[in-house]
Structure formats: structure tokens, C-alpha cells
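Thread title: Can someone regenerate the structure for this chain?

I was given the following input by a collaborator and told the matching C-alpha cells would be attached. They weren't. Posting the sequence so someone can regenerate them.
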Amino acid sequence: MLDTVPAARPAPAPGLAVRCTRVLLSPWSRLSLLVAVLVAAATAMLLLDPQRLLTSGRLGELSGGSTAVVLFGLAYGVCTVAFVPRPLLNLAAGALFGAQAGLAAAIGGTVLGAGVSFMLGRVLGQDALRTLVRGRWLRAADGQLSRHGFRSMLALRLFPGVPFAAANYCAAVSRMGCPPFLVATGLGSVPNTAAYVVAGSEASSPTSPAFLAAMGFIVLTGAGAAVVAWRRRHRLGV
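Best answer:
Regenerated them for you:
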């Protein structure tokens, strides 16, 4: 007689802890966590009102030392993640620390905030959001950032009409590497940031050549960004 082969036993169902772990680590769960973190950060900034803190006289007591510059740069990075407008932070950096130290603090905070946003988007949102990259324009933007990340991000940072946070998370969803993203952010943010920092440092002398030059640069670049945005919307028929 032939020996009968015993029927294979079905694999045991994963335990409750394993199923919960899979759900928590799923792409959409991580995306939900990212949204919750960003909403909480933005809400905290609204409640704490950092604009009032930056424009109060209490921060003026910190100016004048390298430690204060570093602390301001760290706070700058956190505030940008929470969607505090960078022009306000740049003006405060110039008013508190002057043009040179203020620019160093602002650029350092810009790169820090961009890096934190990039890593949050890459770890928590990329897997889920890449499934939503559909349509010709979205695919083209994703391909441009993935293949030509450095020069594309450099152009986005030099163009003042592109929202800072939007550029961070678009880069995070693409396949762009983190080092070129940070280098392009640091270099591309210098011109516009420097203009606001100089304006803040010369705010007490609104008729000085430095203040007028900085404000002229801000107005011209803003007008140029508005014209380019209008022309693109006109071509698309929006």
C-alpha cells in the first residue's frame, strides 16, 4: 500500500500584535500620522503666536552672541516646519543679529527646517503619496525632481513664488536624494533670504541705500514671480 501523505497544516494566522503592527506601519497610516503631526505643529504655532514673540523686546536680549544665533537658527527651523512665514523670520533675524549673523542664522534655519520636512515626508508620506502621482503634470514634476533633483530644486528656491513647504514635500515624495536637496536649498535660498535679512537689519533707517536696495529686490522678484505665475495660468487656461 502507498503511504498517504499527511495534509499540510494551514499556516497559523498572525497574532493580534502582528496585525496591529502591520496596520500602524502601512503607508496610509504613516501618511495619517504625518498629517496629524503637521496639523498639531501649525495649531501650536497659532496658539503660541510666534510673531508676537519675535517682534517683542524680549528676544532683543538674546542678540549679540553666537549662542543666541544658533538658538535662533534652531527655532527658525522648527517654525518653518510649522508653516510660520519665512519672510517674517528673515526680518527678525536681521533686526536681532544684523546682516551677516542674521543671514547665517536664517540660512541655517532654512536648511534645518527643509531637512526635517523632507525626512518627515520621505519616511511618513512617500509610499502613500506616490500612488497618487497621476496625470501628465504631476508625472512630469516627479520625473524632473527624480532625474534632475539638484538643479530643479535650485531653480525652485531661487523662484520666490514657490511655497517653501510645498517644495519640501514635493521633493520628499520624489526619488530625489537628501544631500542634493539640502545643498540646493541652502544655495538657492541665499538671494531672497539675504534681501529680507538686510531689510530687517536696516529697518531703523528706511532711507538708507541698503534698505532701499533690499526692498527693491524684494519688490522686483515678487512682481516677476507674479507675472510668471499669471502667464503659466493663462497658458493652461485656468
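Residues 87 and 191 are 12 Å apart (CA to CA).
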